[in-house]
Design brief:
- With 358 residues, the protein is α+β, with helices and mostly antiparallel strands.
- It has helices spanning 2-36, 39-42, 48-56, 59-84, 87-93, 98-136, 246-255, 260-272, 277-284, 297-321, 326-352; strands spanning 152-156, 159-166, 171-178, 182-194, 197-210, 216-227.
- Strand 5 and strand 6 form a beta hairpin.
């Protein structure tokens, strides 16, 4: 009973640490990304009702990117905290061996691995596609962001706007609008809001437009209303591979030759990155070694942390190389199982050679 309580406490502490580290790192990256995407409002003229859902749907993608490094940091922190607080000695005195602790850590790693599968295969691509569609279907409501003075603004498809003066209160002077076959010149302009949509009222100007015979027709006007809402953003609206459904990727790889290499890389990322979480867990278990006389434990921790960082970098390189080389492809396929067995054998021998505590 007492051993079960100790095991449950150990599991709860590691999972709590992992949740905290993952949430903290993801939130920091998300805040940074949100600040970077402010150009959607300031430069592209999108509204807050578009910006807020867009950045919220970016969160699952960010969480998926932080899963491996968060697990490494949280597991290191938890093991070192147990060692520094002498809690590990309670486990040894209670008859819980280091081999048992290693198996517990391996079992714990299965939960982040399962969560990673859900994020990589389903949730992150789905929310990424939703955020892409939000931009694709957005309308420009902040016209003032599109009419910066003394600057050619072209964030809209088939439209360029130039404004000589802008008092940032919706009053413009020397307004030029260039479309495919039409040019509008006005002495003054004014931004109007009707039914939560923005329009541009042009005052005292001319419309130069080509007809079917390529002749220029000139129309003078005193006032006219220009509707920006008919335009879509000049942003990439076609989904990227990382935003595609997993079954769609498999079908594309089997049936077409277009971007076959990139498609295979994306498939490998979603399948194999979660499988490397248990291997990271095994590598972290090397710091369970507690004989400071035989090995300097501070150096051992630093070495293992650095080694795992290089391992994660190697993993990213391997995922890319696997799409262009048959050798690296089969190496990737075999490494999660064979690599785990080899690392566990080395770890077991390493821990077994440690002198028992007196």
């Amino acid at each position: 009973m007492f051993k079960n309580k100790l095991n449950n406490y150990f599991i709860a502490e590691i999972l709590r640490s992992y949740a905290f580290v993952l949430a903290t790192l993801s939130f920091l990256i998300w805040i940074t990304q949100s600040a970077r995407f402010l150009y959607l409002i300031t430069d592209m003229g999108l509204s807050m009702s578009v910006y807020v859902p867009y950045i919220l749907y970016q969160l699952p993608k960010i969480v998926s990117q932080m899963m491996l490094i968060s697990f490494l940091i949280s597991l290191f922190i938890s093991i070192i905290k147990f060692q520094n607080n002498k809690e590990m000695e309670i486990y040894w005195l209670s008859g819980i061996s280091k081999k048992t602790i290693i198996w517990i850590i391996l079992k714990i790693s299965l939960l982040p691995m399962l969560l990673a599968f859900i994020l990589y295969i389903y949730l992150a691509p789905m929310t990424g596609l939703i955020s892409r569609n939000i931009l694709a279907n957005s309308e420009f409501t902040f016209v003032n962001a599109l009419v910066k003075k003394n600057n050619f603004n072209s964030p809209l498809k088939s439209l360029t706007v130039y404004v000589g003066q802008n008092d940032n209160r919706g009053n413009l002077k020397k307004v030029y609008l260039f479309e495919n076959n039409k040019t509008i010149i006005a002495k003054e302009g004014k931004v109007l809001n009707q039914d939560n949509k923005n329009y541009l009222q042009l005052i005292d100007g001319f419309v130069h437009e080509k007809d079917e015979d390529n002749k220029i027709q000139i129309i003078k006007f005193q006032k006219t209303l220009y509707d920006f809402t008919k335009y879509k953003t000049d942003l990439t609206t076609y989904p990227k591979l990382r935003e595609r459904d997993f079954l769609w990727l498999l079908s594309k790889y089997k049936t077409t030759t277009d971007r076959k290499k990139d498609t295979l890389i994306e498939i490998h990322k979603r399948i194999f990155k979660p499988l490397f979480i248990p291997i990271i867990a095994l590598l972290c278990c090397f710091i369970l070694y507690g004989n400071n006389e035989k090995f300097n434990l501070i150096k051992l921790r630093f070495f293992m942390f650095s080694l795992i960082i290089f391992f994660i970098i190697f993993l990213e390189m391997l995922l890319t190389l696997s799409a262009s080389s048959v050798f690296f492809r089969y190496f990737l396929y075999l490494f999660p199982i064979c690599g785990s067995v080899v690392i566990y054998f080395v770890l077991y021998r390493f821990i077994q050679n440690e002198p028992l505590p007196k």
